[in-house]
């Protein structure tokens, strides 16, 4: 589904119907996972402390306002669609899509997702690997032959990947400059591969999900931004890490 212009009553109605249809399809395809909320919460805390060396100690309200959407997504829980920080005005949320977690520097997005990466290691429905966009650029710049280039694209266009810190990468330079994440996003979109992202909000759009994504057009192009709406559930993480 492409980004929808919702100006006007008719467009609002059409958008609402499209979103409802995508949501219903997502729910009908959802997986009944062999774990409950309590198990997932306990495993997450264990992996978080193992990965960071620190206990996961956040206020209940902070978790509810920011992180519950991520937990409910992985649970395929219908409450996911009611989360206030899940953006769904122009784009239909779906369990079939990946996550785009947007939060300011210091929030702890990477550590949070690394913990989920560890929790779901070996569990195929949710298994994913985290790769920094800087590492993607470095890998591309190290390519020395056509076969290595083929292998590069094969590696980055299979399985579920979380690309960490989107929009922080430089243009790749290997006998000419290439916007390599733009190319990878387009290829993964064409193959309908589930993809997650983390990113810091574009300055000035911290509380404006639509504006934040549209601000990426100058770097990635309109087609890629359109694909991001189609590929991801946008979850806005408010404020910085608040360890108590």
Automatic annotation (TrEMBL):
InterPro entries with a match to the protein in the record: P-loop_NTPase (IPR027417)
Listed Gene3D superfamilies: P-loop containing nucleotide triphosphate hydrolases (3.40.50.300)
Name of the protein this chain belongs to: Uncharacterized protein
């Amino acid at each position: 589904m492409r980004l929808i212009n919702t100006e006007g009553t008719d467009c609002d109605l059409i958008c609402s119907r499209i979103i409802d249809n995508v949501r219903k399809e997502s729910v009908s395809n959802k997986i009944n996972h062999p774990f409950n909320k309590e198990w997932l919460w306990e495993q997450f805390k264990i992996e978080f402390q193992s990965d960071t060396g620190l206990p996961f100690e956040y206020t209940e309200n902070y978790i509810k306002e920011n992180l519950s959407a991520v937990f409910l997504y992985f649970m395929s829980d219908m409450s996911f669609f009611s989360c206030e920080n899940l953006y769904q005005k122009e784009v239909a949320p779906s369990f079939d899509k990946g996550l785009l977690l947007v939060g300011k520097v210091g929030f702890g997005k990477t550590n949070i997702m690394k913990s989920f990466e560890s929790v779901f290691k070996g569990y195929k429905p949710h298994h994913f690997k985290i790769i920094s966009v800087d590492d993607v650029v470095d890998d591309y710049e190290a390519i020395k032959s056509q076969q290595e280039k083929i292998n590069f694209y094969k590696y980055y266009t299979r399985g579920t990947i979380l690309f960490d810190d989107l929009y922080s990468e430089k243009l790749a330079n290997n006998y000419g400059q290439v916007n390599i994440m733009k190319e990878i996003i387009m290829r993964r979109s064409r193959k309908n591969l589930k993809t997650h992202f983390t990113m810091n909000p574009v300055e000035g759009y911290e509380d404006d999900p639509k504006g934040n994504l549209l601000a990426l057009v100058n770097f990635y192009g309109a087609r890629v931004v359109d694909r991001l709406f189609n590929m991801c559930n946008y979850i806005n993480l408010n404020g910085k890490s608040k360890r108590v």
